[in-house]
Design brief:
Length: 424
């Protein structure tokens, strides 16, 4: 058995990728949630899990040696002794526990990822404050989406990974829950944390029968969706980075040094002995879509000489407010003067976003991160060759399109790497 599988559970559905020992995709499938269904439904997750795994061709399934799952960060479930949810899941963007956030600011270190209205820990505190006592007393495990789904395969309860557990307050530097967190009296609910890709257990007999997996397939600790997408890019060495050019601009840089700075929304995920340092700007493709259709972007981009600087000094935003590399909720968009030629206007926008990207990497380096040496690009903007040329000039670095950004592929690679460690 040499192949590995990765599952990516998102807000609209799930995707499965199976790769062989050479990291080539041998099977891929996806399953959308029913339009009428709520994605905050663990029964729906389990049904989609079964559909995807049962859909793997028999010969491919028989060769599967490892499997891992990613889920949306801070999507959580409160479960009983048997691992069954006792409430509906709370999704990654649910800010119901905003009132529980304030007390944490006196306990958690500045810049901690738990200091957010949507953090896993905040949601746990909200459940404790709002559930009837008789219901909360039945709770035994706080599990993330990826944790609960993996438990359906290996049968163990209360296991997580340190990517998902970061927003629960787990200290990824010390690899332990910190003292301030343990003082909250929630220790019995906190999952046991493993490194992503570590072996959790083999597929249980019941899961082997239900999902059609070989009984010796190993379930590996998972990750979050955004980190899985980074892993899919193939970036593995210090200085390698991924810029996602979607509606907003998100950068992630592999660093030998950890960087956390709440002033700019910067925090670090651990990747083995390295750190994945990231930041997100409000600039990005949403600004371009404000002025141009996809067809116009393609035609006008072809008219731009990307190796020549634009004389326009733009800071492209859809509305006032920036978070990284400038932290100012009133920071104004700068989109004038506007030239008559539409291609010249687009040139200014593309170059303005590229300068912000360069400033972002500059800030991470200034704060102590490893200097970037190679940039891989993901998202819709990655396909714009003119923009690629502009960005290479502004960054002064090699910029290439990431070979893959599928989170399911990145999760399959994580499972394969875990399998390789087991066999060394």
């Amino acid at each position: 058995m040499t192949s590995a599988a990765g599952l990516d559970f998102g807000t609209s559905g799930a995707r499965l990728t199976v790769i062989n020992a050479a990291r080539q995709v041998v099977w891929q499938d996806d399953q959308a949630y029913s339009p009428a269904a709520s994605s905050a439904d663990h029964h729906l997750w389990q049904a989609v899990l079964e559909q995807l795994l049962r859909g793997i061709p028999t010969a491919i399934a028989a060769d599967m040696a490892a499997i891992a799952i990613n889920g949306t960060s801070a999507t959580v479930l409160l479960c009983d002794e048997q691992g069954e949810p006792i409430t509906e899941p709370l999704l990654y963007n649910d800010a119901c526990g905003q009132a529980q956030q304030a007390p944490l600011s006196d306990m958690a270190p500045a810049g901690s990822p738990v200091l957010s209205a949507t953090a896993s820990l905040v949601k746990l505190l909200w459940w404790r404050a709002t559930l009837p006592t008789s219901v909360f007393q039945r709770a035994r495990y706080l599990l993330h989406q990826a944790d609960w789904l993996a438990a359906q395969l290996h049968g163990q309860r209360g296991l997580s990974d340190y990517h998902n557990a970061l927003k629960l307050g787990y200290d990824v530097g010390m690899l332990a829950y910190p003292d301030w967190l343990q003082s909250l009296g929630l220790n019995m609910l906190l999952p046991r944390v493993y490194a992503p890709g570590d072996c959790l257990d083999q597929v249980s007999a019941a899961a082997s029968d239900r999902y059609g997996l070989p009984p010796h397939c190993t379930v590996m600790a998972g990750t979050t969706d955004s980190i899985a997408a980074f892993l899919a890019s193939g970036a593995r060495s210090p200085g390698e980075a991924v810029t996602s050019l979607g509606s907003t601009l998100v950068i992630k840089l592999l660093s030998e040094t950890r960087v956390d700075d709440s002033r700019y929304g910067i925090y670090s995920h651990r990747l083995g002995d390295l750190w994945l340092v990231g930041g997100a700007s409000n600039t990005g493709g949403a600004v371009l879509k404000q002025y141009f259709t996809d067809a116009e972007l393609q035609v006008l981009s072809a008219q731009i000489e990307g190796d020549r600087p634009s004389p326009l000094d733009y800071y492209p935003l859809t509305q006032p407010g920036e978070r990284f590399p400038i932290n100012d909720p009133t920071w104004p968009p700068r989109l004038s003067p506007r030239p008559e030629a539409e291609a010249a206007f687009l040139h200014g926008l593309l170059e303005g976003i590229a300068r912000i990207e360069a400033q972002g990497y500059g800030l991470l380096t200034q704060l102590g991160a490893t200097a970037p040496t190679k940039i891989l690009t993901a998202g819709g903007g990655a396909q714009n060759a003119t923009w690629l040329t502009i960005r290479q000039r502004c960054l002064g670095l090699s910029v290439a399109v990431a070979p893959s950004t599928l989170a399911s592929f990145g999760t399959a690679c994580l499972a394969a790497e875990g399998l390789q460690r087991l066999t060394i």
